[in-house]
Each structure stands twice: as C-alpha cells, then as structure tokens.
Write a structure and sequence with these properties.
- The structure is a single chain.
- The chain is of the alpha/beta class and 233 residues long.
- The chain has a single domain, classed as Rossmann fold, CATH 3.40.50.
- The chain is 28% helix and 19% strand.
- It is built from six helices and nine strands; from the N terminus they run αββαββαβαββαββα.
- It starts with 10 loop residues before the first helix and ends with a helix.
Length: 233
C-alpha cells in the first residue's frame, strides 16, 4: 500500500525551475490547473474555469491548435502533468519549441505510471497501474523525451515487483519525470505499425516499459544531483 502520495509539485523542484528564469522573463504555463506556477506571466489551457481565475489566460486545444503566440515570444514555458494527458502530445511539443526559448516539462515517471495504488485505489489486486486517464508513459532518456502509448493491457499483461516499486515511491522525487530544454524539445514517439519500435507478439512492449522505468529512474538521479549541486554552490 502507498502510505503517502505526491501529486503536487515538490518545493526543491519548483525552486530549481525558478532559478532558471530571469526576473524580467516572459513565462508561459500550459495547463495551470489548480496550482499555477508562481513565475508564470501568461497561461494557456482548455477550460473556461481556469480562465476565470487567471490573468493573461488564453484558451486553446493544445493537441491541435496553433498556439496564439509569436515565434520565440516567451523566454520560458512550463508544463506539469500535461503531455501524458494529450491525444496528440507531438503537436504540443512542436508548438512549445516554436513559441519558447527555454522550458521545463514534468510528467509522472514510468515507475509511477506502472505502480498500482497511485491513483485512488490501494489494493494491488484490484487497482489499475498509475493514473487511469493517462494516454502516455513519458521519461527523460539522455535528454530526449521518450513518449510511449499507455495501452489498457498494462493493467493485466505486464509483470512488475509492486512491493519494491512502492518502496521507491516513498521518495517524492521518484514520482516525476523532469526535462529541461533550451531552444527546442528533443523527443521520440515510440509506436507500433510500420517501422515500429515495439510489438505485442514478441513482448517487446513489456521490455520497453521495463527499460523506461530503469532509464527514467537513472536520469532522474542525475537531474536531482544537478539540482543539489546548483543549490550547494
């Protein structure tokens, strides 16, 4: 059972991201939700409710709309728990690269997405893996954002050591994937079909998720070490 859940932003991460932003920077947050980024000067989302609470808010469908901003209009863009929800994250990432000079993307980690009891239910035998409504598993692999469709089969077909994963998730920073970019987002969408990256028949999808958990975890260790070094200096 997961004793404590870490859905909200972590202070040390927020402090680090804030340290990347100059005082007079023009900052866009996409998908602010109920915990908007304090450094953001402008917001973009897809609900009227957000717009009723926030100034400089623009409504847009970031899966298909061209963002209503000029090329490199923003010094920094911030997205947290957005990419994994979208039906077309690639369009959004391309638009982010177009409108921003630099940015920070944060998603749930593959470890988080593959652990039962993260989103609502606690019983390992009854609950689903990760967040039930998410479409993609996302991780940072050597400064490339890897994006893998999260098919319903992950709840039944893949095998992982749930007890060990819950232990690792006791550390709040292991709940996230962290990605800092300059100029453009480097990404790779992993997919089935022609020139596929995986298939179900030879179980490579399962293997790919195993590697995502390992590679994402190792990259997070590097990111957190960098953050500690920055603040120690």
């Amino acid at each position: 059972m997961i004793e404590k859940k870490y859905h909200s932003p972590q202070k040390i991460i927020l402090d680090y991201v804030s340290s990347l932003i100059k005082p007079d920077a023009k900052v866009l947050e996409i998908g602010p939700g109920f915990e908007p980024f304090e450094k953001a000067t402008h917001f973009c989302g897809w609900t009227n409710e957000e717009g009723s609470r926030l100034k400089n808010y623009t409504k847009a469908n970031v899966s298909e709309d061209k963002l209503p901003y000029a090329d490199k209009e923003f010094d920094f863009v911030y997205l947290r728990h957005v990419i994994e929800d979208l039906w077309n994250p690639i369009h959004c990432l391309n638009e982010i690269s177009r409108v921003a000079k630099e940015g920070w993307i944060e998603t749930p980690s593959p470890l988080c997405e593959m652990t039962k009891g993260v989103d609502g239910q606690e019983n390992f035998d009854a609950s689903w893996r990760g967040y039930a409504h998410h479409r993609y598993i996302v991780w940072n692999d050597n400064e490339t954002l890897k994006i893998l469709p999260k098919f319903p089969m992950v709840d039944f077909y893949t095998n992982f050591n749930q007890i060990e994963m819950v232990k690792i998730l006791k550390t709040p920073y292991n709940w996230g994937t962290y990605y800092h970019f300059k100029d453009k987002v480097n990404y790779k969408l992993l997919q089935m079909g022609r020139e596929a990256d995986f298939t179900f028949m030879d179980f490579s999808y399962n293997e790919l998720i195993q590697n995502a958990i390992k590679d994402g975890y190792n990259q997070n260790l590097k990111t957190l070490e960098k953050i500690k070094l920055v603040f120690n200096d």
